[in-house]
Amino acid sequence: MNGIDVLTDLATRPRDLVANLRGSIRPADLNAHPGGHDNSIAWLLWHTGRELDVQVAHLHGGDEVWPRFRDRFGLGELGDTIGYGHSPAEARSIVFDNASDVFEYIEACVDDLLEYLATLADADLDEVIDTNWTPHVTRGVRLVSVVDDAVQHLAQAAYVVGMRGAEDSSPRG
User: Fold this and answer.
1) Which residues contact 152 (CB under 8 A, 6 or more apart)?
2) Among 20, 49, 47, 22, which Cα is nearest to 108's?
3) Which of 37, 64, 136, 161 could crosslink 57 through cysteines, CB 3.0-4.6 Å?
4) Does the pLDDT at position 173 exceed 50?
5) Model pLDDT for residues 34-75, shown as the tens digit of each residue
6) How many angstroms separate the CA atoms of 105 and 128, rounded?
7) Residues forming a β-bridge with 130
8) Nearest CA to 125 among 23, 3, 40?
9) Dihedral angle computed from the Cα positions of residues 23, 16, 158 and 59, in that order, rounded to the nearest 10 degrees
10) pLDDT digits (tens, 9 = 90+) for 69-96
11) Burial class of residue 170 in the structure, from the number of CB atoms within 10 Å of its CB (0-12 exposed, 13-18 middle, 19+ buried)
């Protein structure tokens, strides 16, 4: 197995997590703010897609997937952002009626990533693409970072969904 094969396997993990979340998020939980946190499950899912989309488009130099989905979300210019640095009000304004569109968006972003990976050779992974960090960031390190961030946010959403299920099944006194 070479580096591209490993990254391709890793890149499928967000899609697997989305498949596990499908059908398990109640509409009331999608936009809830557990513990008063500004980032809801809706925000976590939207941010997952945006960070995958923006960073992968930057790597391959092509278009983002977002324009194909933008109108479905009705978020206006806020939806064009990636979520880093959102004020509490901005984070709380990422609201959806259901998760199906955002799941589809994440899956389309994963497809874009997989298509990009198919164009690379192992040697491409060693190319330094960002000298603003020490050590400098290679294409391979950036790709791992992008997928790792997506997996972390989807796991956060899954944890909240699981906790809601645990609350429903806990004994009532």
Assistant:
1) none
2) 49
3) 64
4) no
5) 889 999 999 999 999 999 999 999 999 999 999 999 999 999
6) 29
7) 137
8) 3
9) -120
10) 999 999 999 999 999 999 999 999 999 9
11) exposed
